[in-house]
């Protein structure tokens, strides 16, 4: 029977089903012959009398600080508790904890005492004080040497538990003793003998033989050198030696984290104050005579130095980076980034990221001053862009990091504005003049033809990064990016990437255009219409066929935005130039909604009196809610013809004096044209008997300044009108087929289940509506459609 020194209270259940307190004692376990099994035994701490003898029942849950049930034979249960308030008061007034003498034979008792003290804050406090006052840790470490010499494995296992428990006491004063130069290696030695492992670890061997301390610049201060050694070893104990703390132990190591943190702060401060050290460091970094291996060590040291600085308080970090700036860290980085060694460049990139994240304005100021003295090719920011473009990593890990840094540098949100100057204006003017051409070079080089000249995965990834940065500029910069896009015809070159075999790149190009359209800027809109820049998008939409994918949804969303926001110029441009290609798309109402918008615009232009009629109807409505103008217009134009002819439109009494003929005349004309168009469509539908065939290939010839063909080959067979599947554009017999007397004659030839649409010269049989549409375009830009 072993006394575990665990204090408990014992309660008995009386006849009234109430718990009676039987007293406090120490619980242990042991085999009891009378009960024929292992039993819980509680002896009173006052006189050692037996308070409880209960056979352990496998079906009973025994849990600390919980009343858990009872032994049916004795109606007694036990509750493992910490000290009561009364006992806690007694403990506070009682003298400190008395430790057993530090002897080999009492190591087990010491280990049990440490383990039993950890759950109670008061007992932890007393144990820590006792360990401090008696110099107990050094005595334990002397026993460690004795145990190792005697190969006393059991004693070494006890010492492991003791030292681990001392760590969990979370006391800085104890850590100061344990991490001193004379004790730290013995502490690590104790932690090698984990009872859970069959063989001890070899941490001391690693620290003394494998791990080597390199002084890239000689450190003359012995205190600084000792602090660096200590920090490395304590960090090693935390990361490698101590077992992973449980959920309950995590907070018990907070002082260990703090010890490492403050050590790093001290090291940074001491190095920062040593001006000779930093001067030598930067001098050797930029010296061409420094060999590659030495330079790599210097850069790695500087990188670790900057990483340590992240532990500093804001004001100390300010002083740290100001010191580095005064020492010339940015010119030094410029030299390092121009070298061929990829490892050195990678470390220099990490250092640069620390500087940009901390103070982007400092970097901006440096590169603008530099531009006054050097050519564009050797500017620091252009070196960063070139490294992004030339990243050899197949996954472009470095390029992604550099793109993030560039994005931070061109972000107006972190730019300063003072009374004398505006950083945003100055830096963006500099960036677009000296750097933007370097950033867009790979994009312009790859889009000289109608499709990307290089379409491998790595090139596509790089162009996607460039497009992401350009999209960010469109969103956050104003006239700078607008002038650049329009003057350099950037959007047309970007839309070449819509033909890429990589869907993510095509979507990046589409996202770029969508961001431009989202600004609703008429300068951009006129540029898009003048260059017919919806053509690549429509072509990609048709080539996508009936597939319901991200490309399909993104293109439809862009046109839906134009419809919902009622961007009149783009609506007219899309309908006048691309309606024939899009009219058969009926699985969404987007394109028909655009057509309706267009017709409404035409009606308003042709008949200004419609606006007055619309205002009359709006004034008459009794309920004014959040319905949009679009809903009101659709309600008006969808009014039954018979109601219109009967003159049953309701007007307010104040408007009854208006001339009914003046009001109804433009509406009657509109309805007559609508009926004429419907009758023509019905006539074509009766004559066309191609329904049920395989979806034909669609060929659309755009006759404009640049003779461009849009083709779409549907790869799947869809019956017209099949639910949930996009209809194949140009399906014969579908609603909206071309009327018989259109401006062009379409000859339909059938071969192998495919229908080809071939253009012939214009006839003289143009109807009035088509003449009106064509008159709105310049002769050189007229688009001729066949369906």
TrEMBL record:
Transmembrane segments: none annotated. Residues 637-648, 760-774 have a biased composition (Acidic residues). InterPro entries: ARM-like, ARM-type_fold, P4R3-like_central_dom, PH-like_dom_sf, PP4R3-like. Residues 109-600 form the Serine/threonine-protein phosphatase 4 regulatory subunit 3-like central domain. Residues 637-666, 687-787 are annotated as: Disordered. One of its GO terms (cellular component) is nucleoplasm. One of its GO terms (biological process) is DNA damage response. Residues 688-705, 739-748 have a biased composition (Polar residues). Gene3D superfamilies: Leucine-rich Repeat Variant (1.25.10.10), Pleckstrin-homology domain (PH domain)/Phosphotyrosine-binding domain (PTB) (2.30.29.30). SUPFAM superfamilies: ARM repeat (SSF48371), PH domain-like (SSF50729). It holds the Pfam family PP4R3. One of its GO terms (molecular function) is protein phosphatase activator activity. Residues 706-722 have a biased composition (Low complexity). Belongs to the SMEK family. This is SMEK homolog 1. It comes from Papio anubis. The gene is PPP4R3A.
């Amino acid at each position: 029977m072993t006394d575990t020194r665990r204090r408990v209270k014992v309660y008995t259940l009386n006849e009234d089903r109430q718990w009676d307190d039987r007293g406090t004692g120490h619980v242990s376990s042991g085999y009891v012959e009378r009960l024929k099994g292992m039993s819980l035994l509680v002896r009173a701490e006052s006189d050692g009398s037996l308070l409880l003898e209960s056979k352990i029942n496998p079906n009973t849950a025994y849990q600390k600080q919980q009343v858990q049930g009872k032994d049916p034979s004795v109606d007694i249960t036990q509750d493992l508790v910490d000290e009561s308030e009364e006992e806690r008061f007694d403990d506070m007034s009682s003298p400190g904890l008395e430790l057993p003498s530090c002897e080999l034979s009492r190591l087990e008792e010491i280990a049990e005492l440490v383990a039993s003290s950890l759950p109670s804050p008061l007992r932890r406090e007393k144990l820590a004080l006792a360990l401090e006052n008696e110099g107990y840790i050094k005595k334990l470490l002397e026993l460690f040497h004795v145990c190792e010499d005697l190969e006393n494995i059991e004693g070494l296992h006890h010492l492991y538990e003791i030292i681990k428990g001392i760590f969990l006491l979370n006391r800085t004063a104890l850590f100061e003793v344990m991490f001193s130069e004379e004790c730290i290696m013995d502490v690590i030695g104790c932690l090698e003998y984990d009872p859970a492992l069959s063989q001890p670890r070899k941490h001391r061997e690693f620290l003394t033989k494998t791990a080597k301390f390199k002084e890239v610049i000689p450190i003359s201060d012995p205190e600084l050198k000792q602090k660096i050694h200590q920090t490395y070893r304590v960090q090693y104990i935390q990361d490698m030696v101590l077992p992973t703390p449980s959920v309950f132990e995590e907070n018990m190591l907070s002082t260990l984290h703090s010890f490492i943190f403050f050590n790093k702060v001290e090291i940074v401060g001491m190095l920062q104050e040593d001006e000779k050290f930093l001067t030598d460091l930067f001098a050797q970094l930029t010296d061409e005579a420094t060999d590659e291996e030495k330079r790599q060590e210097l850069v790695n040291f500087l990188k670790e130095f900057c990483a340590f600085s992240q532990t500093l308080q804001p004001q100390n970090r300010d002083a740290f980076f100001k010191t580095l700036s005064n020492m010339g860290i940015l010119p030094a980085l410029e030299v390092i980034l121009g070298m061929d060694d990829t490892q050195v460049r990678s470390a220099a990139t990490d250092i640069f990221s620390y500087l940009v994240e901390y103070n982007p304005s400092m970097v901006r100021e440096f590169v603008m001053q530099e531009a006054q003295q050097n050519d564009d090719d050797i500017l620091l920011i252009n070196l960063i862009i070139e490294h992004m473009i030339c990243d050899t990593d197949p996954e472009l890990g470095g390029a992604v990091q550099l793109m993030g840094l560039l994005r931070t540098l061109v972000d107006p949100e972190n730019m300063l504005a003072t009374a004398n100057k505006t950083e945003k204006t100055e830096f963006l003017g500099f960036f677009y003049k000296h750097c933007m051409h370097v950033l867009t070079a790979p994009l312009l080089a790859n889009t000289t033809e109608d499709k990307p000249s290089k379409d491998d995965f790595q090139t596509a990834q790089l162009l996607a990064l460039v497009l992401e940065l350009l999209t960010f500029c469109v969103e956050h910069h104003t006239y700078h990016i607008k002038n650049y896009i329009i003057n350099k015809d950037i959007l047309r070159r970007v839309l070449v990437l819509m033909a890429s075999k990589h869907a993510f790149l095509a979507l990046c190009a589409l996202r770029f255009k969508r961001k431009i359209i989202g600004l609703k800027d008429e300068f951009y809109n006129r540029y898009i219409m003048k260059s017919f820049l919806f053509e690549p998008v429509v072509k990609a939409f048709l080539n996508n066929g009936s597939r319901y994918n991200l490309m399909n949804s993104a293109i439809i969303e862009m046109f839906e935005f134009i419809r919902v926001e009622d961007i009149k110029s783009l609506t007219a441009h899309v309908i006048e130039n691309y309606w024939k290609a899009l009219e058969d798309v009926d699985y969404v109402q987007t394109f028909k909604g655009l057509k309706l918008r267009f017709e409404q615009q035409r009606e308003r232009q042709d008949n200004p009196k419609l606006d007055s009629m619309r205002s009359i109807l709006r004034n008459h409505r009794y309920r004014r809610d959040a319905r949009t103008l679009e809903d009101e217009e659709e309600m008006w134009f969808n009014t039954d013809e018979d109601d219109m002819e009967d003159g049953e439109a309701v007007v307010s009494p104040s408007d009854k004096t208006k001339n009914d003929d003046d009001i109804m005349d433009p509406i009657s004309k509109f309805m007559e044209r609508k009926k004429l168009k419907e009758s023509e469509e019905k006539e074509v539908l009766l004559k066309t008997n191609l329904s049920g065939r395989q979806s034909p290939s669609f060929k659309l010839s755009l006759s404009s300044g640049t003779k461009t063909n849009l083709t779409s080959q549907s790869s799947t067979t869809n019956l017209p009108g099949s639910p949930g599947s996009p209809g194949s554009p140009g399906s014969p017999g579908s609603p909206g087929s071309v009327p018989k007397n259109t401006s062009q004659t379409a000859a339909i030839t059938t071969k192998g289940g495919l229908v080809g649409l071939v253009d012939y010269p214009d006839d003289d049989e143009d109807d009035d509506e088509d003449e009106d549409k064509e008159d709105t375009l310049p002769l050189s830009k007229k688009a001729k459609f066949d369906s």
